[in-house]
Input
Amino acid sequence: QVQLVESGGGLVQAGGSLRLSCAASGSIFSINAMGWYRQAPGKQRELVAVFSSSGSTNYSDSVKGRFTISRDNAKNTVSLQMNSLKPEDTAVYYCNAKGRTYVARFDYWGQGTQVTVSS
Output
């Protein structure tokens, strides 16, 4: 079993910053990909920023230059620094991790953290 715990959401004014963090724990053998997705009301969940299995990063065009993803492989954590936030960034942000336990592959989601950007 693998658990993802997110933190760092909240309410911020447009132009402000927030930092999200996600920690994975449990019977983890390896994490291949880890990152952030978001879902706004009435919209589908979309990729925000992720580390791929090759270690490269992939950002949504809408956040490039404003958001920065980072990870600590030793601690199985990933963070998302969000700067110059816009009202359209308002959404529930979800952490996702894909990897292997000692017996099987896994693909888990965190519980989500609300980010609200006021205009």
User: Anything to note?
Assistant: The chain has no helices and eleven strands. The mean pLDDT is 96.
